[in-house]
Each structure stands twice: as C-alpha cells, then as structure tokens.
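Moderator note: this is an archived Q&A kept for reference. The question asked for a predicted structure of one protein chain; the sequence and the answer are reproduced below.
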Amino acid sequence: MSSHGITAQNLLRTLPDALREDENMLALASSIANKLAVRPAEINSLSVYAQIDSQPEEMLDILAHDFKVDWYGYNYSLLAKRSLLKSSWLVHKRLGTRGAVVTALSDIYPGSEVQAWFDYGGSPYYFRVLLDVTNQRVAITHAEIIRAIDMYKSLRSHLQDNAIIYRSRIKMALGLICGYAVYTTRFCGTFPARATQGGITKEDIPVETSYGGASYSVPKSGTLETGRYPSTATQGSVESSGVEINADGNAAAYSVRLCGSLLGGVI
C-alpha cells in the first residue's frame, strides 16, 4: 500500500499515539478518515464551468438561477439548457446588441438571423428576426420568444411589426435523365474504298411528272407569317413531258462529305 494519497489508512497513521490508545478517539478518527478518503472523487465536480456538458440537469438549473439567465427555461431540453448556460456569459457581456440576440436565439433555434433596418429597407431603429425552425432544440410559444428578445435587445431598438419570420430549410435532390448516341466516324481514306461503288451506264432515263405539280422552296426564317405560306400551289410547274438524262461512259458515284467537314456552300 502506498504511503501517499488520501486514504483512510494514511489519515489514521497521522493520529498521535496518545489518541490512538483511546477507543472513543480512535473510533471518531476512523469515521472521519473514511469520509475524507472519498472526497478526492468529488473534486472534479467542483470544476463547474469546464464541465457543463457533463453536469447533471439539476446542477444546470441551479447555475442558471445563480447566474441570472432569465431567458433560461426549466422545461427546456437538456441540450438547449446546456447551450443557453454556456453562452450566457457572452450574452450578458453583449446585452443590448444584435450579437446578443443572435447568440441567445441560436442556442434554441440554430441558424437564426437578425437583420437591422438598413439590411432590408425598414425604418430606423427597427429590426426583424428570421427564426430558423429547421433543427429547433425546443418548441416554445411566440410570446416566449418575444419576451426573450426583449431581454436581449437594446431599449431603443424595436422588433418590426412585433412579428417574427419563421424559416425552415429543406434539402432538394434533382435528378436528370438524358440520352446520348455513340457516334463514330470513318478514318480518312477508308471510305469509299473504290470509285466503282456505283455507276451510270450510257442509257436514257425517263422522268415522268403529272401536270400541275408544284415545285416548293423553303423560305428563310421570319420572312413569312404563320399560316400564309405557301399562298398558292403555282409557284412552279412542270408540263407533262418526258425528261431524259444522258450520261457518257461509266460515271463515278459521288458520296456526300460528313457534316462540318467543309464550309457551307464551299466545295
């Protein structure tokens, strides 16, 4: 057993021999030593301010009363009580300022804001409160909130219309669906492989058309009004006749270049 430390045995070791021989005094000393031996375990509880997050709720209520945290609610949740008590010294230090109002309200309604009159174009010496109820730690009545605000604010400042703007934040997920086409182009020189993919022999090709057929050309965008084009079916016509196309030799078939490979109209 160590000779150091506050234990009942170590405390009795300091008892004078004359008192140790007295049974009554020895019994009294033993009782006192046993009580003192358990005190070191209670020493940490004296560190109140550094252990607010671990203090029992009863201790929080006592501290709130002793330090005059008037906006403290004894029926609030444990989380709200701890937050209010921890920030109470800062609120008291800044009492009468916008910072005090924001700090105190955020302990119950995290994310709340206070806007001065020049932030939203109000009248001088007025302000408004944007109370964020998204993650509120306790539900209190409108009257209780007004009462608490009156404790924090400056006497010359007034709550706009004596009203509070309640705000709730939500998360929105947007999904996008799109389609795409895989497009591959041929390597240069691989198509056409030969110039004999198609050809025209030396023959007459008759093209027969019906009388009164109209040729149709597309107008430029914006040049005509909707519903007025074509105005008649006689923009162009082909008489009933035969059209012959004569080709000499074996003409080579011509393939169209890929879009974008040449400037429009330039071949």
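Archived answer notes: Residues 11 and 183 are 92 Å apart (CA to CA).
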